Amino acid sequence: MNEMIKDISVVDYYERVTIDNPRDTESCIRLKKTTNARICLGRAGDRCKTETLLKFRADHGVAMDAVWSEVDETIVDQLGFFKVQTLVEDKEQYIKRPDLGRVFSQETLDGIKGNCIESPDVQIIATDGLSACAINANLADIYPILIDGLTAKGYTIGTPIFVKYGRVATMDQISEAIQAKVTILLVGERPGLATDESMSSYMAYESSTLKPESQRTVISNIHRKGVPPVEAGAQLVNLVEVLIREKKSGVELKI
Amino acid sequence: MILKTRLFGKSYEFKDIKEVLAKSNEEKSGDILAGIAARDTAERVAAKVVLSEMTLEDLRNNPVVPYENDDVTRAIQDGVDPNAFSMIKSMTVGAFREFLLKSSEDEIENIHDGLTSEMIAGVTKLMSNMDLVYTAKKIHKLATCNTTIGERGTLSSRLQPNHPTDGLAGIMASTMEGISYGIGDAVIGLNPVVDTISSISAVLHSFKDFMVKWDIPTQNCVLAHVTSQMAALQKGVPMDLMFQSLAGSQKSNKAFGITVKLMDEAYEVMREKKSSRGPNFMYFETGQGSELSSEGHHGADQLTMEARCYGLAKRYHPFLVNTVVGFIGPEYLYDGRQMIRAGLEDHFMGKLTGLPMGVDVCYTNHMKADQNDVENLALLLAACDCTYFMGIPGGDDVMLMYQTTSYHDIASLRDITGKKPIQEFNQRMEELGILEDGKLTKKAGDPSIFTA
């Protein structure tokens, strides 16, 4: 009863050669180690083998489900985030209308002004983006590191804000509403095959709707197997110091 | 020209040709995002009715971006053959649809130099999916670089051995695997991560060395920015095909860092310095939605803007042109249904423009689509003699992070439709024991054939 079919999502296929009777298996393994592309798969007729097919479907499935997933709000509640929503009403609209995911209603902006600390040195925002799984997986790890590091350096920290159905540009409107010096936005990245937990951090000095996208300094690939969230948190704290010292961010900042 | 009609007792009136073109388009999330799509299905059909009564001359005289303001419009309009145009100008778009359905390949070829992109986009909007397949299947455009692509009975493929860090060993591993499936007769072409001259040169040399060592008759290419390729050419790097992404307006091409003038220069540099033999040595990629994405659509729909990319491409007598149909994301093509429609439209429009048209049948993970949609569209395109497809290990591009047709898919499409690679390439695959009568042998699908 406790027997289980092997977990195909954890098979290490960097070295796995599934060609029937290759001319030289050792060479195939050597080739395979040079790339994460899906080579040395073998075939069934002209089609791929069952294992190859199911592995691909699993990798795509986890990516696709991440796009349509929702952030676990108990995580943002426990961390004390103030919760707002863009003009987007549901996930499907979020995917189809990136323009609506960049803006808030006046009422929401008034709510932010009325409930959040004004003029902080650092404003932290989290938003689902294209993978809520990324926020679920990383937020609780990165947030305490940020708070501890920024507090130790003597910076004032704003009320953290969670944006439901948000795009990166929401950070500009929030920054303008509460007059933050540095704004950090944590957002779920568009998932690749087999990677649903990757998060990015965008930060800007005096983040503004009037500035171009190049105002933003980015750290991407934040997840357990990429830049671990704890390490990314430490990097972000150091970057905040640079941005506040230089009074600029993005391409203007030569790091 | 009448811009008004009635349908089931309700009146519909449109303010100009641009609005008729936009509203007669099949539903695309990109046109909705741009705020120019039909309000409902009835209005969409009303627009199609109005469009069907316009003449081709009306469409010629009303390009969606004015001639004075746009170098793409000028390139297309100046390229029209007046004699061919006079043969068709008084036809309505509705009559033109029927002309295309009734005519032979030769009859279509006689008039295609008289067409502008707006005419091609217009008739596409009146065509059903099977109309698009039925008509595109008649048209075969041959082009010659080192080899000749587009012959009847062939189905070609670009070997796309992308790697997350441009690692040469990894790129060549994917190349070996691809050739062992009979992939790469259109081109061996890499999307580079790094757009530097030294990196471009290293990859082009590696491809060329492999082609020489194993005597593989095809072309090499690195899909870097055209200015980087021009610089590499000046250093004497062997380059068979020159690549550039194209958009359908001057403003959107500016976002790609090109102008018609720059492309004219690039074409001349390539003509002089290329390592290939034939008269066709350019490779272009396009895709519906890029103009809206760079705010250069001028209020026109994404299908019409896409047609204009092909009009511009034609100026350079390309060897390869393909749409990258599902790459741009769900805000432009929402799901498998929209992607399949767009793929059929783009292929048809490219063929009618007179291009050796291929398709990158693909999707991203935030689209409502999966590999079954890719396979559906690839089968439909193979049925209408699409010139070439992409071939990627396992259908998974580990650099561009999207999914497209796999090496296995190309072999399967050839088997299902009874087609073969380009003749010389096919012959070499038979000599290497990879193909026999166009089908994979027992030995095929093993990259270690090439590690000996």
**What is the assembly state of the chains in this entry?**
heterodimer
Q: Quick check: average pLDDT of chain A?
A: 94
CATH architecture of chain A: 3-Layer(aba) Sandwich
Helix-strand makeup class of chain A: alpha/beta
- Name the shape of chain A in a single word: elongated
Total beta strands of chain B = 16
Strand content of chain A: 5-15%
Helical fraction of chain A equals: 25-40%
GO cellular component, one term (chain A): ethanolamine ammonia-lyase complex
InterPro entries (chain A): EutC (IPR009246), EutC_C (IPR042251), EutC_N (IPR042255)
Binding site for adenosylcob(III)alamin (chain A): 168, 189
Subunit structure (chain A): The basic unit is a heterodimer which dimerizes to form tetramers. The heterotetramers trimerize; 6 large subunits form a core ring with 6 small subunits projecting outwards.
What does this structure look like?
The complex is a heterodimer of chains A (255) and B (452). The longest helix of chain A is centred in the middle third of the chain and has 21 residues, at 132-152. Chain A starts with 24 loop residues before the first helix and ends in a 9-residue tail after the last helix. Chain A is 38% helix and 13% strand. With 255 residues, chain A is of the alpha/beta class. In chain A, helix 6 packs across helix 8 (229-246). By secondary structure, chain B is α/β, with parallel strands linked by helices. Chain B has a domain at 143-451: Alpha-Beta Barrel (TIM Barrel), CATH 3.20.20.70. In chain B, 46% of the residues lie in helices and 12% in strands. In chain B, the strands form six sheets. Chain B has a four-stranded parallel β-sheet. In chain B, strands 8-9-10-11 form a four-stranded parallel β-sheet, with helices on one face. In chain B, helix 12 (197-213) links the parallel strand 6 and strand 7 (220-222). In chain B, helix 10 packs parallel to helix 18 (336-353) and helix 17 (302-314) runs parallel beside helix 18. The interface between A and B is large, with 42 and 47 residues. Chain A: It comes from Pelosinus fermentans JBW45.
